[in-house]
Structures
1.
Amino acid sequence: MEFFDVINERQSIRKFKEKDIEEEKLKKILKAANAAPSAGNLQSYEIFLIKDLNKRKRLANASFGQSFVAEAPVVLVFFANPERARSYGKRRDFYSLQDATIATAHAHLASVALGLGSVWIGAFDDEEIKRICGTSLRPVALLPIGYPDEKPRRTGRRSLNDLVHEE
């Protein structure tokens, strides 16, 4: 799929088919996340790959009952790892947060390019996500991924005149 087709095709998918994701597709998604730019190329984030149904259910509960999180065959959980960006001093938390978000965006778009669907989840209980994944790092986003079982209605976007402020 061409880049701008991927951008235009991307939608938040909250209903998934009961079908596993092929390992080669999953690896491509992870490689896309790994290729994301990062501050000083420090790659100050971590990705937890969750396939286990029980853990996916716990993630759904920790996401304030968003049950579709558990219905996706895979959930990627992105964490900021500021220790990897310690050379940036006080800015390390900010840079690790940026690193994790752009890696999430790359994985999100790679999923679309591979015929899969995903949805960016930012509403969750941080402490519970940490417990489920067994880490003390700051959770940034959950990305449930699977084969779409819906075609949501397109949502509107702000006009460029409203969005862009030329000086």
Note: The first strand starts at residue 45 and ends at 50.
2.
Amino acid sequence: MSKTVFLVRHAKAIGREKPIPDFERSLTPKGLLRSREMAEYTLKRGFSPDLMISSPASRACETALAFAGVFGYPEDKIIRENIIYDAIDGREIIGAVTDKSDQYHSLFLFGHNPTISEAAGILSPGFDQSIAKAGLVAVKFSHATWPEIETDGGELLFYWEPKKVLR
């Protein structure tokens, strides 16, 4: 059975000028709203997760929690992977996917730029954009196992960004 990876960049967070550690920066009210709207848009088009993985940073977790609420996905089942926050390139993020159980076919991963966009480009050769805040890239693979997604490119199903799909 095929695999699909949904790469979601966290939504708009409070600015870096605030005296808050980067890891603890949370979503703005608009960021939280956009997260919910993008999750609703995704769900209405028939997509939902078998598994959700997030950076443990506040803004990524809050984005994942907003999606989970819309999807009816149990919040305590969201896996938090430090490498998604600490990664220095997109390949490291992909490593957070390739070790997952093959019982999952639809995986949502919540992270940060630039590495989330780099991962999208690696998984879908030809994708060379910077994912917008709260944006979502879906890549489908004909493979039956997660480790195989690293070796062959997948098919870009879509790239949705809030200002283009939420009107």
Note: The radius of gyration is 15 Å.
3.
Amino acid sequence: MQIRFLTGLLCGILCGGMAHADAPTPEPLTNPLTLKQALTYADDVHPDIELAKARLSMSQAQADAARAETGLEISGQIMPQYVQRTASVLDYNTDHQAHLLITKRLYDFGASEARREAADKAVASSSLDFLDVRQKRRIEIMRQYFAVLLADMRYMVDNEAMAAAYVTYDRIRERHQLGQISEVDLAASETRYREFLVRRNKSQIEQRASRQRLANALNRPGDLPDKLERPALNGNDRKIPEFESLLKTVLLSNPDVQRLRQDVEAAEAALVAAQKKYGPTLDAELQTSYWERVTLARDNVRAALNLRIPIYQGGRDQADMAQMQAHLQSKQAELKKAEYDMRQKLLDLVQQLELLKVEQQTARTRSDYRDLYLDRSRALYEMEAEVTLGDAMTRMTEAQWRAAKVEFDLAIGWARLDAMRATLITEPNKKK
């Protein structure tokens, strides 16, 4: 036993090692990485995707099992036996026999049909759940992709602010050496510079952290993206649909709501199946047999119809129906709550998009103003009339960061709206 156990353990280790070695290595990320390319990784092997696939496979297997309940059933029975007889004219004691039984459920008064319907509805529910997971994966990738772009822009803002603060501090330190600046002013300038330095260093750390989160979202934790292309996001200029018409579309097509509707229908079918579970059944049976002991009367072939009529189940039928009724009520309540929640989520999202549209115009105006302010600061710097070039560059970069953040928030908002309408996100920058 020990040798057999060790042999099995060794084989398991070797097979596991071979399976691990044969596992496909994902292709490295493209450099620079585009958002469209990043979204193509959304359906790759990932824990969320694998869990959704497993739930779908489980429901499909249960549906196959429900359809197989009324299928043809064939079984064999072999009985080699030795008997000791008290009185026999035969001179041998063997009584071997073999039987082949074929059974087919002909009718069960709708019980199996109700179970098949419940299983098919469960498959439809799992399919919608899989779509929902795929959409959430795409939105998460978009969030992390935009987070990397914003982290890079934030670093530029904080780096320029730190550089401007250092120039000011260096100038004040020179004047302090000449006795023109007090210790207090020097300390204040140095403190301000070091605060900007800390902020710049935090932004630098966030650059790597955001890339690690994106790599995790892409299921490539060891492959941190280097350069990312900023998408055009032309779809942000779409007109926001009217809320009431949008609500009707969402309530009819939203994967979450649709999934719960399928769950309700599955629960209704399961209740019908529970009501008919202990009902009559009609089976056809065909049996052929081989008997070694020869007698005057044997059933070598037997064909029969078997009508089974249950009379009393000890309360199990009532318990099953009560359980299915409670399950149905639970799913109906979940559906109602989901419809209420979806109405509120949609209203919040539409209002957020409307607010972001206003912020979008403000951000564009701010960026134009900062461009003009930078041009004027350059002219004043060249005339040595005023030294504000560093501050102007910082403010311009920050205006660009704010404008980008609004555009990215809008893209995420539109992606969420598309997901609510059961549209799989492939190109978020495409006008629709």
Note: Confidence is low (pLDDT under 50) at residues 1-23, 379-387.
